[in-house]
């Protein structure tokens, strides 16, 4: 009973935080059925429902979409990360260095790259890869993997990602949402979005 109450309180806090966050940042509506370039026009997607493009992004090659606010559901497009670059911006290369995508990085090492990025950038104390399997993304051989983590708000989130390395650059889409209620409810929307992704 105590644990259920605790989960409810944490969930309510996350909702409040998400609402505050979504109102603090302007967004652009991405309409159902309209093909749109994402992540600095690195590739295209065609939404099967309306999404909100957030005005903030964690990196210069990234773009974020959400339905209800980033804390509740967050799709990140990573568009052509070049060798030698992190997935997101480093706040301090000296004190909080981020792992870099390298010229020799293998596709099977991408989940580890995301884990290292989350542990530093999101201050994630726990990160666990739940599954990894071969898959296709943007019409190229790649990897599909799932994971769960908690960050500074102590809420456990689940994630799913699709990635491929194309002409030496990393392309990836990730979806993060609270494990309770939100992830299972909305992961199908992410998969439909990822299925629609294509290069120029």
Given helix and strand content, the structural type is: alpha+beta
End-to-end distance, in Å? 52 Å
What is the count of β-strands? 10
Please provide the ordered H/E string of secondary-structure elements: HEEEEEEHEEEEH
Q: Uncertain segments of ≥5 residues (pLDDT<50)?
A: 1-5, 7-24
Our estimate of the beta-strand percent is 35-45%
Helix content: 10-25%
- How large, in whole angstroms, is the Cα Rg? 16 Å
- Roughly what is the average pLDDT, rounded to an integer? 88
Explained architecture:
The structure is a single chain. The chain is an alpha+beta fold and 200 residues long. Helices cover 24% and strands 36% of the residues. The strands form 2 sheets. It has an 8-stranded antiparallel beta sheet with strand order 1-4-5-6-10-9-8-7, with helices on both faces. It is globular and about 45 Å long. The chain starts with a helix and ends in a 5-residue tail after the last helix.
Task: List the keywords.
single chain, 200 residues, alpha+beta, 8-stranded antiparallel beta sheet, two-stranded antiparallel sheet, 3 helices, 10 strands, 24% helix, 36% strand, globular
């Amino acid at each position: 009973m105590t644990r259920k109450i605790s989960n409810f309180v944490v969930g309510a806090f996350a909702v409040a935080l998400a609402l505050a966050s979504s109102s603090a940042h302007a967004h652009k509506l991405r309409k159902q059925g309209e093909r749109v370039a994402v992540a600095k026009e690195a590739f295209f997607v065609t939404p099967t429902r309306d999404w909100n493009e957030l005005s903030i992004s964690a990196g210069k090659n990234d773009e974020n979409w959400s339905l209800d606010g980033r804390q509740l559901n967050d799709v990140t497009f990573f568009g052509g990360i070049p060798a030698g670059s992190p997935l997101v911006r480093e706040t301090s290369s000296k004190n909080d260095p981020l792992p870099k995508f390298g010229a020799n990085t293998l596709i099977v090492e991408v989940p580890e790259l995301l884990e290292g990025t989350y542990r530093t950038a999101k201050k994630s104390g726990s990160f666990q890869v739940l599954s990894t399997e071969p898959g296709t993304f943007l019409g190229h051989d790649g990897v599909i993997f799932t994971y769960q983590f908690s960050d500074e708000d102590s809420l456990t989130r689940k994630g799913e990602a699709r990635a491929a390395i194309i002409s030496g650059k990393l392309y990836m889409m990730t979806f993060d949402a609270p494990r309770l209620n939100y992830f299972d409810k909305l992961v199908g929307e992410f998969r439909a979005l990822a299925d629609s992704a294509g290069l120029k």
